[in-house]
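Usage

Read records sequentially. Each one opens with the input sequence:
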Amino acid sequence: MNQKKITSPIDNETKSSLHSGNMVLLSGIIYTARDAAHKRLVELIEKGESLPFELAGATIYYAGPSPAPPGKITGAIGPTTSGRMDIYTPTMIKAGLIAMIGKGKRSAEVSTACQEYGALYFAAVGGAAALLAKTVVNVEVIAWPELEAEAIRRLEVRDMPLVVINDIYGNELYR
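and closes with the structure output:
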């Protein structure tokens, strides 16, 4: 299998080189955020207020890790169903979000926003949460710890295996 190694934040050259169906190994900084965090982020965007991290150029992983077992950095950290974030995603892409990681198909509105604003959607393998946790080399809660598993975390990952689903050219692997 031919996998391309890429780094987050993802630069324009890399973004332009990726196509629906490509397999990648992602390293760098990504952020976890799920439903409750997305709602708060969009509310802040709409009010013109500061976000807890720089959204422009960011990659968000739709995941809520389980508690870390003794001696581990994180517990299992598998992708959640991306469609639950679809009502918030176009606003976030317009505000600069460059990539998302999750599982499952996206809405037509998200697909259109990916093409219009040049964003990517990657799939991580559902059911492989323990294996995906092995790619995490650092984790830090950076916002809304009261949301527990849905708090925003800053992750540093190394060689997280992903598949490009939506590219910036309007292609979608699931179609």
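Summary fields computed downstream for this record:
- The chain has one domain: 3-166.
- The chain has a mean pLDDT of 96.
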